Amino acid sequence: MRFDTKIAIVVREDLATWQKLNVTAFLSSAIAATVDDIIGAPYEDATGNTYLPMIRQPVLIYAASQTSLTQVHQRALTRNFPTAVYIEDMFTTTHDEANRATVHAVPADDLPLVGLAIYGPRNPIDKTVKGLSLHP
Known about the structure:
five-stranded mixed beta sheet, alpha+beta, about 140 residues
């Protein structure tokens, strides 16, 4: 199935594995929480056990250098895509309010980005992440 929209998560390539997973999980939650109709139906196994619903379409994960991540961030803001950010300082906080405070304290051009998520029409999202490779 081909979707008209795309979810792209860009993660800084030099992070530790646990950090990449953590960043991806948090950024995915931002898309799930804010995009209408992005969540599918609950799952059920053949025994009748039910499971929570998930995002209804693929989430593509890209690896990027700090420079490329900053470029994608600038493109996403310029194109007004719904964007979630994860900055380096958030690794040292323990709750949402502190996370938001760390982002609020830094101007957009100076954010120490380690990841971001964007959602929008397929072709413009492709142009926004152009030049990046899918995470290995």
